[in-house]
Amino acid sequence: MRNLIAPQQAARSLPKSRSARRAWRIPGVLTAVTLALIALSPGTSARSEVPGVITEFALSYPNPSPSSHAHGGSTHEITFDPRGDGTFWVTAPEHDAVVHLTRDGKATSFQMPPGSAPHGIVFDAAGQLWVSLEDAGVVVRLDPSGKIVSRYDVRLACASCPEKINTHPHGLTVGADGKTLWFTGKATGTVGRITPDGQVRTFPLATVGSVPIYIEAGPDGNMWVTELVGNAIARVTPQGVVTEFPIPTPNSRPIALVPDPGGRALWLTEEAGNRVGRIDLGGKITEFAVPKTQNNVILAGLAFDRAQNLWVQQYVDENNPDPPGPDHLVRIDRAVLAAGTPSSPGAAFTFFEVPTRQTVMHRIIRGPQGELWFTELKADRVGRLIPPQTR
């Protein structure tokens, strides 16, 4: 099994286009780097679906004035129904909008209630679309026309407060049963559950002020959660029993989670630690450093392709933008992951430059045809990449 990519081989694997190619050696690791891929407009899908080429689709929203806490953009979460028509749904909190996006980049925006800030978005096993309205403190179900047809209040009761406390439901996913909804209460350090019969229950995490962000169903039937400030991964049983596992790197700011294709672990990104981590079902965490293209880059989402390579978003930190530079999708070769050690000799990382700069990339998922789709929060774009064949 080969786990080393030579620069010459990487260059040969690129499309014959205007793509610029370069490679450099990072101490202890030979890294092939693929740069300056092509941005194409909607309507050029035949040309854009070349393996290794990134296509970006610009999104415009009906509300031209995002709220004051926006990053200068608003394109956040992305999902699709694996049993559906292969199209995508995206949330735009600062514009109070949910967007339906076709494969060729045609976007239709649906307005949510003013000031609601839609964030998490997911399909359940029945093909129903659910969205967390973070600033409203509710989780809603939408019909295909974008109309709200069900609404669940997930705020916390408070006997000494004039009104309920908003949990700020952020991450949203479906449990192993395909029916139960789970969400993170970002503002209250909680995880919530909505059962198929509409019962809402909230469970506190052990670490106060942990700021839970992402939640994912694990291969063990439990829910797994990233604690951004708590610097831990939480495991929550279907009954709400919480166990926290500290991340070895201090202040790593864990963001996203994705199950391992082998069904024995989950993988996470550390925004500030610039590492990906593997957490087994017992809570043991192994970290893998991701080479930096420059010192001021951080990580966002991650996803596996069909060949079981792991892809992670690496972009220039908007809070530390100097020097400026390109953002990348990084492919971590499956052989590195299979080796099971962060010091694997010949670990291969391949970098694919995103055409737009200052993207503040947010999420990445594997699409219905094996392609990778990702959001650019600040640039208000959605990108697509067809993974090149693993050599």
Write up this protein.
- The chain has 391 residues and is mainly beta.
- A six-stranded mixed sheet has the order 1-2-27-26-25-24. Strands 3-30-29-28 form a four-stranded antiparallel sheet, with no helix packed on it. It has a four-stranded antiparallel sheet with strand order 4-5-6-7, with no helix packed on it.
- It starts with 6 loop residues before the first helix and ends in a 6-residue tail after the last strand.
- It contains three helices and 30 strands.
- The N terminus is likely disordered.
- 47% of the residues are buried.
- A hairpin with a 5-residue loop joins strand 24 and strand 25.
What is the element layout, followed by pairings?
Blueprint (H helix, E strand, L loop, with lengths): L6 H6 L7 E7 L2 E7 L9 H4 L5 E5 L19 E3 L7 E5 L4 E5 L5 E5 L6 E6 L5 E5 L4 E5 L5 E6 L15 E6 L6 E5 L4 E5 L5 E5 L7 E6 L5 E5 L4 E5 L5 E5 L7 E6 L5 E6 L4 E6 L4 E5 L7 E8 L5 E7 L11 E5 L1 H6 L9 E5 L7 E6 L5 E5 L4 E5 L6
Parallel strand pairs: 2-27
Antiparallel strand pairs: 1-2, 3-30, 4-5, 5-6, 6-7, 8-9, 9-10, 10-11, 12-13, 13-14, 14-15, 16-17, 17-18, 18-19, 20-21, 21-22, 22-23, 24-25, 25-26, 26-27, 28-29, 29-30
